[in-house]
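Table S5 (text form). Sequence records supplied for joint modeling of the two-component complex.
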Amino acid sequence: MQVTQSHDVTGHVDFVGAGPGDPELLTLKAIKAFESADIVLHDRLISAEILQLAGKTAVLVDVGKAGFGPSWKQADIDALLVDYATKGQRVVRLKSGDPTVFGRLDEEIEAVEAAGVPWQIVPGITAASAAVASIGQSLTQRGRNSSVRFLTGHDMKGFADHDWNALARPGAVAAIYMGKKSARFIQGRLIMHGADRATPITLVENASRPDQRILATDLDRLPNDLSAAEMDGPTLTFFGLAPRHAVQALTEFKKEHA
Amino acid sequence: MQVTQSHDVTGHVDFVGAGPGDPELLTLKAIKAFESADIVLHDRLISAEILQLAGKTAVLVDVGKAGFGPSWKQADIDALLVDYATKGQRVVRLKSGDPTVFGRLDEEIEAVEAAGVPWQIVPGITAASAAVASIGQSLTQRGRNSSVRFLTGHDMKGFADHDWNALARPGAVAAIYMGKKSARFIQGRLIMHGADRATPITLVENASRPDQRILATDLDRLPNDLSAAEMDGPTLTFFGLAPRHAVQALTEFKKEHA
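The corresponding structure-token record, covering 516 residues in total, follows.
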């Protein structure tokens, strides 16, 4: 939402999607916002290659909620955004992926809006999009699934509950964000609701980054395979999708053994 | 999926997401693929501003399925991709939005793969992402919805059927692609499954383009308001989301009249 600046001294806040990690997956619009920023407040997971694209005079502040150093509360981030912008600074609030997908954006927008600061959202490539490209699949496919769900493994109450019954149906496809810790919970819920234990599951760690790893498994083996893989980076879990070459290999295997 | 070229004369195919229309919403990776392409096969809806970014010697071919001139069949497009790539050309197959989201990508990948042509997917900003940014909302929000669905209004059998029961629940959010013609069908199904007639619905026509229009309505008024608005461009329908300022206005209205 583009809001016109009321006068020259007013700063503004751009909520910018940094994409999944590969700097080449930034949009031109994100780069422009980034290059002209006076200050960049960024999440912990933003890669160094991306932070290097900020203008030389820009101040970079890591407001990530984990890691060493003082922990940032949401209210502190909100206050910082408003503080800089009302002093006339061009603020970029840089978030991994797309800020509108599990980006916890709304509280920050509300704070900025309440202070009368102009703002806009610059969309980014969300992790599901980069991860599915890396396995050569589509999130939707004619004749297979005419919808796709983006879920989070966690919500404010702990492991997030979902419409497991619908997900358990043949052909359903979901992209699960933050699904590692809740993998066993999700497995249990889906099997309880009748999902096929052989439903393909693919995990993509560090999608689009040089250290990207792909783990192809199924619903039955998910917790064990995930535990064995020791994935430490941000990971996207696809329910109902196998990597394209694995699909082909399986089809050929079935043909040979038919 | 990056596949190494076997030898120098082999061409390749990049399936590239052009984003929703604003050239600034292209990724750097898309632009690089585009600038170095020998031939670009593009959908009908790709804007002239984006096509101008192709290298000066690139051949542009509109393989859109509507409009004047001979109609392109999917098999013809598949054959053309393979034909150019096996002649050593760098082919870009440019699709609106993100090619993995309702992009009808798989048949083309299968054709290219069967011919042994290297290929990759370059993700793009999907229409839902740009459209939700334009109304200042998030696709997901803590405490409201821990999942979001991307649906299509049409599938191969006509109006697409979905898990209406789950969608009809309070707080559900969906981004409906190609939802204009099926608006009355969707309305009927959702109301039949108990959805609140006052559920906010927002339509964004030509998201991110200069001629973008936003229509804020609700489930009850959807067919009539949509008909009156005469939206001809590609339109994204949000179920369960109102534009941020309309949300605020409504909250203030309710406060004043409480």
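Note: Chain B has a mean pLDDT of 89.
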